[in-house]
Design a protein that fits this description.
CATH superfamily of the largest domain: ANL, N-terminal domain
Radius of gyration: 22 Å
Number of helices: 11
Shape: globular
Helix content: 25-40%
Largest sheet: 9 strands, mixed
CATH topology of the largest domain: Rossmann fold
Strand content: 25-35%
Strand order of the largest sheet: 2-1-8-7-9-10-11-12-13
Number of domains: 2
CATH architecture of the largest domain: 3-Layer(aba) Sandwich
Distance between the termini: 54 Å
Number of strands: 22
Length: 420
Amino acid sequence: MDTPRDNWLAHQAAAAPDRLALRSGGVDLTYAELAAEVRGETRDLAANGIGRDSVVPLHLSPGPDFVIRLHALIELGAVAVPSPGGERPALHPMRGTPGRLPPADVVCRLFTSGTTGEPRAIDLTRGNFHASAFGSADALAITPSDRWLCCLPLFHVAGLSILTRSAVYGTGAVLHAGFDVDAVAHSLAEDGVTIVSLVVTQIARLLKAGVDLSSPRAIIAGGGPVPTELIDEALARGATIVQSYGMTETCSQVTLLEPDDARHKAGSAGRSLRGASLRTEEGEILVRGPMVAPGSVGEDGWLRTGDLGRIDEDGFLWVEGRLGDMIVTGGENVQPTEIEDVLIAHADVADAAVVGRPDPEWQEAVTAVVVMRPGTKADAAVLRTHCVERLAGYKVPKRFEFAAELPRTASGKLLRRKLR
């Protein structure tokens, strides 16, 4: 039999039955009510042959039904495979011990963003989610009264882990069907939201719409580095931006830049969460800890992230790009993110990406793909002058291309490989 603490939801239903567990789609469920719904779903799934030997596609829309199904699969010891809809991964057996929920059990199978190649399947365990939740709780000083707004896709770890963390903490999850500026504005004003997870493009859209972002005590910014200008604007308007770094393989966040450090360490992804260890090797970021997916570590126990960065004298991580994104032009190495930050700082630029195009003279020509703000008049010559004033000569783009939008994943990460 499971002890209550083995089963996150059962423990919360016993400890705080009347506390809000979920608000979504006009429905409020306390922990007691959610647990009752999950028990019914568990019986139905078991009657249909779902158990500890099952890998089950989970392609419901974000809402109460998704949350109930997720927790039912967790209680059965099955492996949930969230997808954006339409995808039906094949079911196949997984080994396990009936009647127990040990930390090594796989809870879900998620897919990487595929920013540098084809998406890879990552199996995340109960222990991974537990360690990630407690590391985040320690950094954010989580209390039972917190409510975490989720408007990120649930087939990515950043969104899904909000649901699992809430069950571990016993806090409330406010779940939206997707990202909508007006819906987020209403939720921040009416739902008692104290924490919200957003990607950079979402923060920019909320600021542009004039949404009051001062009420949450923490806005977790993920999906890539946050431009300094965006941080400055958000801080000036009373928002508390908490930058983070993480990936599917680390079960979401592995570092956080706490609010007290937001100004003097702007641009940093913060320090490692409790239980996580970080180091760099030839510029590559390596991670070790109980939140790292077991199948993603090397023989030495470290995850090689493929990200480039540095750790400063105070232990703060600065992410500087991807190994595969490096542009070699005229014998010089160029990181695209440095140039992108310069371009985005121009008032007429809404978004920008930099890639290397094959070139007979330079090996790779630094090429900027730019999305301009509506109604602006800046052209390639203006942007080139802007870059010349701020970058070394070999970093100035040789070419400028213009697009209506950039290819990004559902979690906001740039699909640079599609631009190449």
